[in-house]
Amino acid sequence: MARNTILQVLALVLGLGMMTACGLVSPEASFTPTHNYALGAGRPICTECHSNDLAKGALKTYATFDHTPAFVKNHRFQATQDSNTCAVCHAPSFCIDCHGGKVPMKPAKLLADRPDRDTPHRGDFLTLHKIEGKLDPSSCYRCHGRANNDQCRACHR
Amino acid sequence: MKRHTYVALLATLLSATAWGQEVSLYGTTMAEIWKQNIPGSEQATYTAATQYLGIDATKLGSDNLSLHLFGWGVKDFGDSSPTIYNGSPNGSYSGGYLSFGYLQYRFDQANAEIKAGRFAINQGTGFEQVDGVSARTDLRGGFSISAFGGRPVLYHTQDLSSQLNYDFQKDFIFGTRLAWRLPQVTEIGLSYLEDGTHAAQNLPQPTTEDFTRRQVGLDLLLTPTTSFDLRGRTVFDVAKHPEVAPGAPAHNDIAEHDYSATWRIGSQVAVTGNFAERNFFAYFAGSNMPSLFRQDDHDMFRGWGGKVTWTTEANFQLVGDYRHTHRETFGDSNRLGGEMRWTFNEKAVLFGLGGHIVNAVDTKFVDPSTPYLSLSYKEARIWTLVTKGQFSASLDGILQRYDSGNPYLAGVQNVYEVVGSLGYQATANIKVSGDVTYGTNPVAKHETQGLLKAEYRFGSAKKGGQ
């Protein structure tokens, strides 16, 4: 079955190549891969500079990417649809601070000098997780369900 | 893939940096020391050093080819360290991990790109770490397509001999997403994920632990006006499962609904509502810790709530939020609170405070020998971050107040932690800082931690770390 799946992938890659040949690929130029300058501390509001134009590539208004409290909390939606737009400002290591398959310390400790960032597990989360884990284990699962759970097994065997 | 194969691939990738016209090396070196005073135990001191290191090399022969590497290593110098890294049960520990290492080719047209190596990918149904290949491109008519495939990165939670079945089942991962965009109005994506090809029921000797997943996802963004957007996704479990016993309820094939809508009222107020529902049998499929994330077909989570954000032109932000949650096996909870955030002097001074109340039912009483606890608590937080010239300072305090009678709190009702940090930006590329943390918790009556950190970046490649 694995061999079949590999063949499916190869077929897909071949298909992409054929699409290029057939002219199905968009003729638009790729957007710039990096932002012109680094942004300072705090949550950036894209529309402060970009008014309400459409972001190239994403074809959405810049307001869609304003880093409001709701955006920070729900950024999984934008990351699913526009990860290459995220990459204009964020290097992959930015995501890995929290979403690494294995991390040596909790993000709140790594970024203790950045209290403005909404890093998970600030304070004594070891105690709090006994409550939050019962109220909603699916929120734990996002990061610890299939990876990054070496420390869980100390108690959860 | 064997270890020496990984080493050879890593060496090849590293040697490729020699071809880069723009190469950056960035990292963070951290030294920690912390003391614990646990009632009934002798006071203990622990020390550890952690190194994060990354390399970005661009223009590798071609302007469009780049290399990205990032990983970390840790050495625990404690004489009798607790379980801090990788569940080391005792004694000192050293370890490391390659978070990602891949070559990327970015085309000048259609935002097309190809990656090869170890990378993380967030596409459609999940966030995956893969040793393999990925590709994406925009198509004509607003369509785009992406796909990845390879070997899933394995995360062992037990000794290897007891996880042979996990390794055997998770032999291959493949995902693809087809999307369509109407500029400024909508994006609809359809995705498929197959993680592992040897399902437990198909093994020569079927087992109870199934580490594989097959999922179809539908994601949506709808912005009918510039002041309103609806986004979210629904994930379906399409794996074949053993037949349920006659009379038993059928498995729910919908793993997740997760939706959020935002309505912007003028330039200062935004109202956000969200709804999520997750059925644990389908949602927890593929967990490498099935003992913790149990695929209980009688258990599910449903939550809904809202957030109101008011942002003034004077850089003051006020947020109020409410969330109701329901878990089938534990009951309901209500979370209510708010946050305030000020930004002064061109972001040189940031200040915030917030508080939340969680009102929840108790855990279910099973029998007198099984402790049960209140799930209600209150939380307050206050913080500030000040930057002046090359210096920066921050202070962050958080307090959690639990209901009395909780058997896990060892008589402690108020748990708090205060973190103070001082930093000095020595040059544009080097920053040194130190953090001191003090707190009390049910495990340690007093806990003090110190952390020294050096962050640096050398080279000419743009971006990285932010």
Q: Regions of chain A with pLDDT < 50 over 5+ consecutive residues?
A: none
Q: Compute the gyration radius of chain A: what is it?
A: 20 Å
Structural class of chain B: mainly beta
Number of strands of chain A: 2
Major pleated sheet of chain A: 2 strands, antiparallel
Q: How much of the residues of chain B is beta strand, in percent? A: over 45%
Q: Termini distance of chain A?
A: 32 Å
Tell me how many strands of chain B there are.
Answer: 22
What's the N-to-C terminus distance of chain B? Answer: 32 Å
H-E order of chain B: HEEEEEEEHEEEEEEHEEEEEEEEE
CA-based gyration radius of chain B: 25 Å
Order of helices and strands of chain A: HHEEHHHHHHH
The largest contact between protein chains, plus residue counts on each side, is: A-B, 98 and 148 residues
Specify the helix fraction band of chain B: under 10%
Mean pLDDT of chain A: 84
Shape of chain B: globular
Number of helices of chain B: 3
As laid out across the biggest beta sheet of chain A, the strand order is 1-2
Give structural notes:
The complex is a heterodimer of chains A (157) and B (466). In chain A, 46% of the residues lie in helices and 3% in strands. Chain A has helices spanning 2-22, 47-50, 69-73, 75-81, 83-86, 92-99, 107-110, 125-135, 137-144; strands spanning 54-55, 60-61. A two-stranded antiparallel sheet of chain A has the order 1-2. In chain A, a hairpin with a 4-residue loop joins β1 (54-55) and β2. In chain A, α8 (125-135) packs across α9. The longest helix of chain A is centred in the N-terminal third of the chain and has 21 residues, at 2-22. Helix content of chain B is 5%, strand content 59%. Chain B has a 22-stranded antiparallel beta barrel. At the A-B interface, α1, β2, α3, α4 and α6 of A face β2, β3, β4, β5 and β6 of B.
